[in-house]
Amino acid sequence: MAKHKPTLREEIEQAITDVPDFPKKGILFKDITTFLHNGKLFNEYIQMLAHRYQAYKVEYVIGIEARGFMIASALAFALNAGFVPIRKKGKLPGKVLSQTYSLEYGKDSMEIKEDAFSGLKGVNVILIDDLMATGGTACAALKLISKLEAKCIELCCLVNLLEFAENKERKEIESKTHVFSLIDVE
Asked: Is residue 170 among the annotated active site residues?
């Protein structure tokens, strides 16, 4: 009998490490760096995404700090597109736009440079994050993209925690753009 050849999703899911009680007790952290260490898998994932987005004429790939940077910059390279970081408050020089969002323990802000798209309006962008839980950071990132009048084709996250699917931020995201994830975790 032929052995089952694992799918890309299955291989990546096996390569991601679960770290209990990190960064605080009660959290099961999905460590994607163990997946990123595998050059073959990482390359296959980026090529799959590049194939998915090649017809959209993506001009910029936006990465959410910090693990979204790793995937977004590699995808930008594969698509011959620009890379734009969205960072925590105070980490970007020059003129920035800021967006506040709620956390389970308070509020935080993220920023994008005002000239991120060279002053162009209506550019096609893909938003990348490693993992979507409550959707707070992704929702704030979409608001920043909207302030710059860009068109977010899709929010792409490697891992999607479905237990938070009914959160208001998640509903707001789904009303603004399509969400694609390779790994959905119940």
From this structure: no
Q: Domain coordinates of the chain in residue numbers?
A: 55-185
Q: Which of 4-13, 99-108, 167-176 has the lowest mean pLDDT?
A: 99-108
Catalytic residue among 59, 67, 154, 169: 67
Catalytic, 67? Answer yes
pLDDT digits (tens, 9 = 90+) for 66-111: 999 999 999 999 999 999 999 999 999 999 999 999 876 679 999 9
H helix runs in 92-167, sequence order: 136-147
**What region, left, alpha or beta, does residue 144 occupy, with left being phi > 0 and alpha being psi -120 to 50 degrees?**
alpha
- Can you tell me which residue has the tokens 């969205």? 86
Set 9, 44, 65, 104: catalytic member: 104
What architecture does CATH give domain 55-185? Answer: 3-Layer(aba) Sandwich (3.40)
